Amino acid sequence: MRSVNLDHLRTLIEVIDRGSFSSAARQLNLTQPAVSLHIRALEERFGVDLIERAGKSTTAAPAGLELASHARAIFESCERAASSMKRYREGWVGRVSLVTTLTTLNYRLPPVLKHLQQVAPGVELLVSNMPTRDVVEKVARREADFGFVMLPIPESRLKVTRLCAEEIVAIFPRRARDIPDVVTPEFVARAPLIMEHTRGSINAFVEQWLARANLTVDPTMRIGNIEAIKTLVAAGLGMSIVPLAAIGLAGKELACRPLRPEIKAAVGLVENEKAPRNKAADMVRPVFLQLRNPPARTKSRATE
Question: What are the strands, taking DSSP E only, across 166-229?
Answer without folding.
Answer: 168-173, 194-196, 221-223
